[in-house]
From TrEMBL, chain A:
PANTHER family in UniProt: INNER MEMBRANE PROTEIN YGAZ
Superkingdom classification of source: Bacteria
Family: Belongs to the AzlC family.
Broad class of where this protein is predominantly found: membrane
UniProt keyword annotations, A-Z: Cell membrane, Membrane, Transmembrane, Transmembrane helix, Transport
Keyword Disulfide bond attributed: no
Recorded topology in the membrane: Multi-pass membrane protein
Localization annotation: Cell membrane
Membrane-traversing stretches: 21-49, 55-77, 127-146, 208-227
The protein, known as: AzlC family ABC transporter permease
Automatic annotation (TrEMBL), chain B:
Organism: Cellulomonas edaphi
Top-level taxon: Bacteria
Keyword Membrane: yes
Transmembrane stretches, start-end: 6-28, 40-60, 72-100
Name of the protein described by the UniProt record: AzlD domain-containing protein
Record key words, sorted: Membrane, Transmembrane, Transmembrane helix
Length: 231, 106
């Protein structure tokens, strides 16, 4: 791994950790507003540690859903983390106690940074730095958000909801640009259409998961190309 | 929901989400040797992240909503096209939405 590759991976890790951590403040505040205690809110960020699942969970609880619905929705949305596992295990080669630790840190952000590196060693570095960095920042800012809670007022006022959308856009962007990403752009467009079309008719979190069906169908029928060069 | 019931739900849902993560790490690596599996897994990531962008930017609950998040996302896209760093993209989006809401947009 060159120094440049190492620096690029570290820089991305820190940027992602800070950006993701910052919208942890909106999770903390929204969770308290949804009726969870500060301790319950912290338990979600420490133990569940998957932003989408956490937002989905408090969304169901906050709108009066049952415990069963909240668990199912969080689980459905968390299933994508299971899909990330096979993408990162070849980079990590984690065994023993590192394996459950790596599993807990396998989220959108750590997977995206790890797989965006051209060099496997830089990818490994990116995974751990992003995973641990997001974990620390996410929990610190969740606590801050929960404590501030009502005092902060509406996190929307600070544009934190828009920041979350922009963060996901920035994560998917490198996968959509450049030659060879034609199929990815097709799938992205299909996923957006499916997610928005299903939103009025399905519980929170389900449209995102069903959008994955687009990728599975395209993946099953499209001609297999050599692994796309990562940017 | 009682505090005890909420705690049980928090622990059960967290265990389920962790179990799914761990399952992904226990899948035999030779599954990945098949290019179609690797390609499909990459496309699934694209689909989920793209769907998350849409849901985060244009929905509230089960409603499709066009509010200050959409222009903010547009600003983020322009910043990405200009190769702005991640943190700048995110800050610009938040500032755009906050500014538009200060001006009275929803």
């Amino acid at each position: 791994m060159t120094d440049d590759a190492r620096r690029a991976a570290l820089r991305q890790s820190v940027s992602v950790a800070v950006a993701t951590g910052l919208y942890g403040i909106s999770f903390g505040a929204l969770s308290v507003v949804a009726g969870l205690s500060t301790a319950q809110t912290m338990a979600l960020s420490l133990l569940m540690f998957s932003g989408g699942s956490q937002f989905a969970f408090i969304g169901v609880i906050g709108s009066g859903g049952t415990a069963g619905a909240a668990i199912a929705t969080a689980g459905l949305l968390g299933a994508r983390n299971g899909l990330y596992g096979p993408q990162v295990t070849p980079l990590l080669a984690a065994n023993g106690w590192r394996r459950p630790l790596a599993a807990q840190l396998t989220i959108d952000e750590s997977t995206a940074v790890a797989t965006a590196q051209a060099d496997p060693a830089a990818g490994r570095l990116g995974f751990w730095w992003t995973g641990i960095g997001v974990f620390v920042m996410w929990n610190l800012f969740t606590l801050l958000g929960a404590v501030l809670g009502d005092a902060l007022g509406d996190p929307r006022r600070y544009g934190l909801d828009a920041a979350a959308a922009a963060a996901f856009l920035a994560l998917v962007w490198p996968r959509l640009s450049g030659p060879g990403a034609h199929l990815s752009r097709l799938v992205a467009g299909g996923a957006v259409a499916v997610a928005l079309a299903l939103t009025p008719f399905t519980p929170a979190g389900v449209p995102v998961l069903l959008a994955a069906a687009v990728a599975i169908v395209v993946g099953a029928v499209a001609p297999v190309r050599p692994v796309e060069a990562r940017t | 929901m009682s505090p005890t019931a909420t705690w049980l739900a928090v622990v059960a849902a967290s265990a389920l989400v962790f179990g799914l993560k761990l399952l992904g790490h226990l899948v035999p690596e030779h599954w990945l040797a098949k290019p179609r599996v690797a390609q499909t897994a990459a496309l699934v990531t694209v689909a989920l992240l793209s769907a998350l962008v849409a849901v985060q930017a244009a929905t509230i609950g089960r409603e499709l909503v066009a509010d200050a998040r959409l222009p903010a996302l547009g600003v983020a896209a322009v910043a990405l096209m200009l190769r702005a760093p991640f943190i700048l993209v995110v800050v610009l989006a938040a500032a755009t939405a906050a500014g538009l809401r200060a001006l009275g947009m929803s």
